[in-house]
Design goal:
globular, 297 residues, 12 helices, 2 domains, alpha+beta, Aminopeptidase
Length: 297
C-alpha cells in the first residue's frame, strides 16, 4: 500500500483495499468508482496513495486530483493533495469532478475557488421510467423499439464470461465504423472496454447483450454505485440497426436493475449529440460536479 507522499499506479489487485472505502463513502458521482478508475487508468494515468484515513487519487496525464475518499472533515487531506499537485504540476492545479459533499466542507474556509462544470454532471434516471417508457414524452423511444421489434428477431440475455470476446468484437466493429483510430477519445474508450472485459469477473460487473441473427449487436454493463443507484459504465450497439440502443437500454433495466430505484448514466462531456441523447430520456435530476482550486493556502 503506498503511503503519502508515495503514489502507485492503480491495479486490479488494489480493489480489495479501495473498494470498501469507496463503498462506505456511498458516492453519487460515477467517477468515484473503482471500476471507472481502473478501466480508464491508461487514459488518465491514474495513481493513488493513502494519507492517514483517506485515499488520494491523481490523474497524472491531466495534472489534476480527484477528491479525497474517506470520512469528513476532509480539509486536511485536500490541502495535502493540493501541496502534492502544486509541487508536481504547477500552481494552477485543480481537483476535478468534486461532489457537493466535499464542496460543502470547503466552501466557507476562504481557501478555495469552486465552480460547477456542467459537462461533467451525471444524469440520474428513475429505473421505472427507463423500464416502462410510459407517457407521451417517451413516444419516440417506444416507436424506435416497435420498429426494431418489427424488423428483427432478437435474443436478450445476461452476459456470461463466454460472451466477452463477442462483446469485444462488437466494440471493434463499432470502432471501425466510427473511426476510433483517428479519434484519441474513442480509442481510449475502446481500451476502457477491453479493460472492463478483461477484469469483468473480478470487478463484479453485471451486463446484458442482444443477439440479432446469432451475432452480438449490442451490449452493456454496470454495477451498484451506492445502495440506491446503479451506474452504467458501457453501452455499445450497432447504430445502423434502428432502435437497437433504445432496446438494450430498456432491456438491461428491466432484467437487471428493476429493484434499484435510480440509474446513473454518467456525464456527456459537453458532446452535443451525447447530451441530446441523454436528455431525451428525461433524467430525474443531474448530480453536480465541481472544479476546486486553491486560492489562499
Amino acid at each position: 500500500m503506498p503511503n503519502f507522499p508515495e503514489f502507485k499506479p492503480l491495479e486490479i489487485r488494489d480493489r480489495e483495499t479501495l473498494q470498501k472505502a469507496i463503498w462506505d463513502y456511498q458516492p453519487e458521482i460515477s467517477d468515484i468508482s473503482f471500476t471507472n478508475l481502473l478501466i480508464w487508468r491508461a487514459h488518465y494515468d491514474v495513481v493513488w496513495s493513502q494519507y492517514k484515513n483517506w485515499f488520494l487519487f491523481v490523474y497524472q496525464r491531466a495534472g489534476c486530483g480527484l477528491m479525497p475518499v474517506g470520512p469528513p472533515p476532509r480539509i486536511e487531506p485536500t490541502l495535502v493533495l493540493f501541496d502534492h499537485l502544486r509541487k508536481n504540476f504547477g500552481e494552477g492545479s485543480s481537483l476535478e469532478r468534486v461532489d457537493s459533499r466535499l464542496v460543502s466542507e470547503l466552501a466557507n474556509t476562504g481557501k478555495f475557488g469552486i465552480e460547477p462544470v456542467r459537462d461533467h454532471f451525471d444524469y440520474i434516471y428513475r429505473s421505472e421510467d427507463l423500464k416502462r417508457l410510459a407517457g407521451r414524452k417517451y413516444d419516440a423511444k417506444r416507436n424506435h423499439i416497435n420498429i426494431f421489434n418489427k424488423n428483427n428477431q432478437f435474443t436478450y440475455r445476461e452476459i456470461a464470461e463466454k460472451d466477452l470476446l463477442g462483446c469485444l468484437q462488437t466494440a471493434n466493429r463499432w470502432c471501425q465504423l466510427h473511426g476510433c483510430d483517428k479519434n484519441m477519445e474513442l480509442h481510449d474508450e475502446y481500451l476502457a472496454i477491453i479493460n472492463a472485459c478483461n477484469y469483468y469477473p473480478e470487478l463484479g460487473l453485471k451486463g446484458g447483450l442482444i443477439e440479432v441473427n446469432g451475432r452480438i449487436e449490442a451490449f452493456t454493463f454496470g454495477e451498484m454505485l451506492n445502495d440506491r443507484t446503479a451506474v452504467i459504465h458501457v453501452e455499445k450497439a450497432d447504430s445502423e440497426i434502428r432502435g437497437l440502443y433504445a432496446v438494450i437500454n430498456q432491456q438491461f433495466v428491466e432484467h437487471t436493475w428493476v429493484e434499484v430505484p435510480l440509474i446513473n448514466r454518467e456525464q456527456d462531456l459537453g458532446e452535443p449529440q451525447l447530451r441530446k441523447a441523454k436528455e431525451s430520456y428525461y433524467p430525474d435530476h443531474l448530480v453536480e460536479k465541481y472544479r476546486v482550486k486553491l486560492i489562499n493556502g
